[in-house]
């Protein structure tokens, strides 16, 4: 995927590419342009804009763009949550948010000054973020990594969303502490209306609110992977369940019933008879 932001990066606009590269996109391409050119270039190059005003992956209240990425791509790693506070303090006026934030701001300012361009700046700073992430991981070592099942369909707009929603419902009913996430290999811009309406009728909320791609973190963190006919290659050799389900567009109930039957078996297996 292509990602675009303002040139002359310092904190957030280096931290976000690091996050993208390490946890989201296996083959990212970054573009740095003047502030007034970001949106037009993003449209022309089909790139995702970040860290500019009035975009999804930008500042929201006291939160910075790094926080927006964590929220949008469901990066539930406790170490990333800790690192996000350090970045937020360094990137905003709340410099005292963490003891590490002033040092990150100082180092980022120095790297910006000595770097030839933004790509040189990324190359210099990425090892620093690797180290800060490892520091945060050590600090949060007592916090358990969340277990979750990854549901994947082509467009990330219907079957995977239905599967994840019903898995969360049934897992909670069994007292199973495993979450579920939905993603697509070629995500659509919006959720399928039939899936949204059907889930509402079931009393369930679709998540995410808009389809998103499968991320590196999804593949690294999944306890199990469910594929609705997609080519998915987990990075840790997790088991992949291939589910054949009729198209949701041909009838929500038939697709839902097939998915729920499979989910019930999966939950029972993961619960181990509990």
Features:
274 residues; alpha/beta; 2 domains; three-stranded parallel beta sheet; 47% helix; globular
Question: What do these coordinates show?
Answer:
With 274 residues, the protein is of the alpha/beta class. It has 2 domains: 138 residues, no CATH class; 124 residues, Response regulator (Rossmann fold), CATH 3.40.50.2300. The strands form 2 sheets. Strands 5-4-6-7 form a 4-stranded parallel sheet. Helix 4 crosses helix 5, helix 5 runs antiparallel to helix 6 and helix 7 crosses helix 10. The longest helix is centred in the middle third of the chain and has 22 residues. The model has no long low-confidence stretch (mean pLDDT 95).
Short description:
The protein has helices at residues 12-24, 38-45, 65-72, 78-91, 101-114, 118-139, 159-173, 193-201, 216-221, 252-271; strands spanning 2-6, 29-33, 48-49, 148-153, 179-184, 222-227, 240-242. It is of the alpha/beta class and 274 residues long.
Can you lay out the helices and strands and say which pair or pack?
Layout: E1 2-6, H1 12-24, E2 29-33, H2 38-45, E3 48-49, H3 65-72, H4 78-91, H5 101-114, H6 118-139, E4 148-153, H7 159-173, E5 179-184, H8 193-201, H9 216-221, E6 222-227, E7 240-242, H10 252-271
Parallel strand pairs: 1-2, 1-3, 4-5, 4-6, 6-7
Helix pairs in contact: 1-6, 4-5, 4-6, 5-6, 7-10
């Amino acid at each position: 995927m292509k990602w675009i932001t303002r040139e002359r990066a310092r904190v957030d606009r280096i931290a976000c590419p690091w996050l993208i590269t390490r946890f989201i996109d296996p083959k990212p391409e970054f573009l740095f342009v003047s502030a007034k050119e970001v949106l037009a270039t993003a449209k022309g190059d089909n790139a995702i804009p970040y860290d500019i005003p009035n975009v999804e992956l930008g500042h929201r209240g006291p939160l910075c763009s790094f926080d927006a990425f964590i929220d949008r791509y469901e990066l539930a790693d406790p170490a990333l949550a800790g690192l996000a506070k350090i970045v937020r303090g360094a990137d905003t006026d709340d410099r005292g948010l963490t003891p590490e934030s002033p040092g990150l701001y100082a180092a980022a300012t120095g790297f910006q000054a000595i770097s030839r361009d933004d790509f040189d700046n990324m190359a210099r700073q990425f090892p620093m973020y690797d180290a800060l992430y490892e520091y945060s991981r050590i600090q949060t070592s007592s916090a358990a990594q969340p277990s979750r099942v990854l549901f994947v369909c082509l467009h990330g707009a219907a079957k995977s969303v239905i599967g994840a929603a019903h898995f969360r419902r049934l897992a909670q009913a069994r007292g199973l502490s495993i979450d579920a996430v939905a993603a697509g290999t070629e995500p659509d811009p919006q959720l399928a209306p039939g899936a949204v309406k059907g889930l509402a009728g079931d009393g369930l909320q679709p998540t995410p609110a808009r389809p998103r791609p499968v991320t590196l973190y999804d593949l690294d963190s999944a306890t199990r992977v469910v594929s609705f006919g997609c080519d998915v290659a987990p990075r840790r050799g997790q088991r992949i369940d291939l589910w054949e389900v009729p198209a949701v567009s041909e009838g929500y109930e038939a697709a839902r019933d097939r998915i729920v039957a499979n989910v019930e078996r999966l939950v029972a297996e993961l619960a181990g008879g509990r």
